[in-house]
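User: My collaborator sent over this chain with a note saying "see what the structure looks like." That's all I know about it. Can you take a look?
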Amino acid sequence: MGLGMGKKAVAASLLCGLLYTGFLAASLSRAAAQTIAPKPADEAAPSRFRITGKVVDSITGAPVVRAQVRVSPMNRMRTNGRNSGNFGGQGFGDQSTSETTGPAGEFSISVPNAGGWRVTASAHGYHSEAYEEHDGFSTAIVLTEAEPVYRITFPLPPGAVIEGYVLDEAGEAVRNAQVTLSQIPPATPETANPRPQQRGRQSTDDRGFFKFSGLTPGTYVVRVEAQPWYATHSSQFGQFGGFIGGAVAQPGATQDAAQDPLDVAYPTTWYPGVTENAAAGQISVQPGETREADMRLSPVPGFNLRLPNTAPKVEVVDGMVRRQGIQYGASLTRLLPDGTESGVPVPMVGGQSGDLEFSGLAPGTYVLHRNGERGLVAEGATTVEIDANGSRTVDVAQGTAATVVTVRVDPAADSNSLQVSFRNVETDRVVYAQRPRDQIRPIRRGGAAASADADRDGASKTIDRTVALDPGKYEVVLYGGGDIHLTGIEATGASATGRTVTITGGAPTVLVHTAHGRATVTGFVRSHGQPDAGAMVLLVPATLGDPAGLNVTRRDQSNTDGSFDINAVLPGAYILIAIDRGWEVKWNEPATLQRYLMQGVPVDLSKPAAVTETVEAQAP
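Assistant: Without extra context I'll predict from the sequence alone. Here is the result:
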């Protein structure tokens, strides 16, 4: 018995030894295999394509430390003429990479492919921008097999600052005032008075202080909207009477608004404290500059805007109001002289008759939109002018109702994705024509909307759109719809010339004619036989200055190899020009362009096509 147990123990020991030896051998074998396994191809050697350089302060030339430099591939996705690049149609995917500059402002970023690469830089206290950026256009770095490494010096401009305090008539801080900063863009041949572009909006703190930082060089205007903290507003329904959110108030004691010294409002105020947009002070800033924009607000008597219920069918039962025929509310915006609309933070009150009233309004121009049942906006709008010397209560009936325009698009091109806009050429205000909510086309399988509706016989038809416009001259601009472009406009009850239509009232109908197909113009800018980088490239319609012309001027900026790419171009006849470092040239003035057009390259794009041209850079 004891001997048998001993043999079993020895056998077990031998078995464990054999197992351990096998395990050890297998481990050594795997380790050896891992040791001699070749590295993946992408780890065998670093990419030979590289962008190196140095980020410096554009004013002092000093290195910018800890700047974030990002490199991203260019592609053909652009449709607005900005920052595209056509580099063999390579699809790089998401291959962006970044690096932080060191003490000397140096960077060296490896990229996986030859092609065009967009370089951007940002740093604390500086404005973020792309390499050689001008008006949103920039120069791409083009790497090739022959030139796989490219070195640049990236001048980064310090960000400008506009700051200030908003004070009331007593010199006290105005808290929670809404401060809007807008930049005035350069004019174009098609837009002599471009609409200011909002760059920031913020509320003042408890000191009445605001600060906009990191601004690009340019010209700005500052606008302030606020309400006096102490104001009380009176209406025909009583002081603070009426309803908010549909709760109808019981009649209150009506107070004569003219006798209430606290029924006041702050008018919209522009720097340096003026209430007329035309008198607004323009603030020009350079890189790194700080400008102050302090303002003091002065109250004016508050006005009331009454919206009578035109079809009152109201029953009062046990103090409860039945809503048959009662208004469902309205929205009010302030129409500024530059064409922008701003919300009006004033109370809306109402009485049992169904009348509505906005109170605490400062003098100015307002646009009233009536709401329909279930919150649907009713057709049309009413523009009301509140005169500082007029009655304290203004009836909406005294306003000017907007003209409801019917818009029809060629059936073959009409689709959900196509948007038809009307831009007022005087104010630059843009309004979009709307399709009826119950006529939005279903999306076809695969996500594509139907290109046109069809009647029972299968023939295409269009669905009318509507837009409410004040009398004036409007430019018709199409957005979306793939490669659809405008070919002409007809109007009944209005006049049409080129891409503009003039509305005078009535019930006009605008017919929008379209076609499919756009062109692409690519090529190279040369200067004395060498690539010219950073040149401004202009594709100017041959019909420049003709009111009946439909095409617009397109721009681009040449890359380091002189290449440029302007796509989604409307068919027509053009002249291609390039101006060496010409970003200070007043290209928006047709008279200035004439000397350059004489030496330009004619380009025939009467049919959608891809055209390649070489153009000689002209001196600015």
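A starting point for your reply to your collaborator: Helices lie at 2-36, 41-44, 590-597.
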